Amino acid sequence: MAGGAGSLRALLRAANALLQQRRYRAALAVIKGFRNGAVYGAKIRAPHALVMTFLFKSGSLREKLKSIAQATYAHSRNLAYFVFTYKGLMAAQARLQGKKIPFHSFLAACIGGWLVFGENNPINSQIIMYLLSRILFGLSRLAVEKGYIPQPRQDPFPLVAALVWGTVLWLFEYHRQTLQPSLQSSMTYLYEDSEVWHDLSDFLIYNKRTDSK
């Protein structure tokens, strides 16, 4: 028993010593990036999948839990693969050129995005749309910082909010098929299901009646 504990302590010391080796830092960063991508993907997707599945999907409890697990796994796996690919390519480019330059980041991420997120499926679509909205905000702020567009005299956010909501409801009402299925489900619940009821039970307590009345 004591020998086993001693061996474990020796193994831990060797592992910690390896982690302190500067020459392995780039490779170790790639491995930890894979770990962080997997963990973060699971943390982000699991609550979202749980809420969306139980709110909008039908089926047995087993089927719902399976759907949640599959969505969580897919998000976690893809993010882990992407971080691994991105950091690996960044390290390779820096080693080849002897230094890190801004284009390395763009090229590594483009390749990772193509390889990992290139398949058009619900999980990847949600991630890409999430990033796209942040990119548009980021590029707008960068354009102001660099002087490409003048600093607004008033906060433009109210106008942006009005245009975003005006556009998305117009698309929902007249071109619904262009919106992502989960967004369609959310908007159907908010704007169409609220127009249907039969009595107090499905007016205040439930969204839809479950009996055959």
From TrEMBL:
GO terms for cellular component: peroxisomal membrane. InterPro entries: Pmp4. Coiled coil: none annotated. It comes from the Eukaryota. Pfam families: Tim17. This is PXMP4 protein. It comes from Grallaria varia. The gene is Pxmp4.
